[in-house]
Amino acid sequence: MKNEASDSSTVDKRKHAVFATEDIKQGTRIICEPPLITLPYPGADIRQLMHAYAKLPKYEQERIWDLDPSDLSASPLLETLAQLTEPILKRTVQIICKPKEDWTKEEAKDFEQSGTVLEQVLPTLRLAARWHASSRSMIDIPENERDKLPEGTPITGLFVETAGLRHSCVPNCYAHYNPVTDRMTVHTTRAIACGEELTLSSIAGIYYQTASVRASELKEKYGITCKCEACDSSHANFKKHEDARLRTNGRATLLGHFLTMLEIVDSDKVLKDLCLSSHIRPERQPSKEELENNAQTVLDLIKDLKVTGCEGPELIRWYNALIDRLQPRIAEALSGEKKLGLWKVILGRANGCELIAKRCFGEDSEEFKELQKRKERIAEVLMNAEEHAKTLKESKKKIIRS
């Protein structure tokens, strides 16, 4: 499909940022690329990185040097390499600044030795700084579980085209790695105007954190400062973003507790995973009122997420809570037209999730296919229920006539 193709004509790759050269529709795939380099667990081994880099053709090595490096303070490894390099570099510069005929034997020897060291260390430092700034996770597994993966499993990769997009706390694009196609795709999550910068989020939780918390994380992890409308206190929309994020944080915390309790009610596996004894299991099912109150909290949370500019998979996460956990339970407490009516609402939300997945992941993704299957299952259940209700209604009419 046209909007699934990567179209480089729609972007202008200026140094440090990427801008649209024409209007781009929501859900357009603007990047589809394989990784240039991949690393297995732990995903940041400097020797593995240098080895992988050395195997690249010259033209692909040059593409890496066009990327922006991370601030050296953003990583203990980068700081260590910089500390090792700085005195050697300083000494070398001092020697170079002198006429060669004035060099002492010690200086000539130092220059020769320093040159050998710098030839090794400086490229390592430059490459590590770009890897730290631009590498992306290729798996959706918590960091504390990654050491259990089969040896050699790639967990981080460098995607050069994707790395060209800068961070924003109000991003207008979404990046997703498809393990089946071994491609990183980037889709626009909303319509983009010609001349507008294309942006991604570099950190998780941007829709739940205040500006100060996000600023601290961005500085610590990448050494960068975000100047988007959610971070610039002088911007007219700043307070709107701050207030919405405070609300999303509180609501997500409350909902997380309630949804966990639902899982405990339903599954012995959850008890085991959380290291809880069986006597911890709640003695009763939640009431219809509790379910309805939490469903409304989810809707309020989704509304605030949209205020923050969220148009991506984070919405699917909370719609899933309604579709899979809350509203089917509420429907069980209803009957007749009210029950069918709620299932129609659930089907509508399943349709919405499928559309978001199409816009953010693409139709070739497993995420889209799974949500499509769920929508079809719900549609089939609803159709059968409507047919059953229709049959009952006709039967009642026949009984009344007789």
From TrEMBL:
Gene3D superfamilies: SET domain. Pfam families: SET. CDD domains: SET_SMYD (cd20071). Residues 1-203 form the SET domain. SMART domains: SET (SM00317). Keywords: Coiled coil. InterPro entries: SET_dom (IPR001214), SET_dom_sf (IPR046341), SET_domain_protein (IPR053185). Residues 368-395 form a coiled coil. This is SET domain-containing protein. It comes from Cucurbitaria berberidis CBS 394.84. The lineage of its organism: Eukaryota, Fungi, Dikarya, Ascomycota, Pezizomycotina.
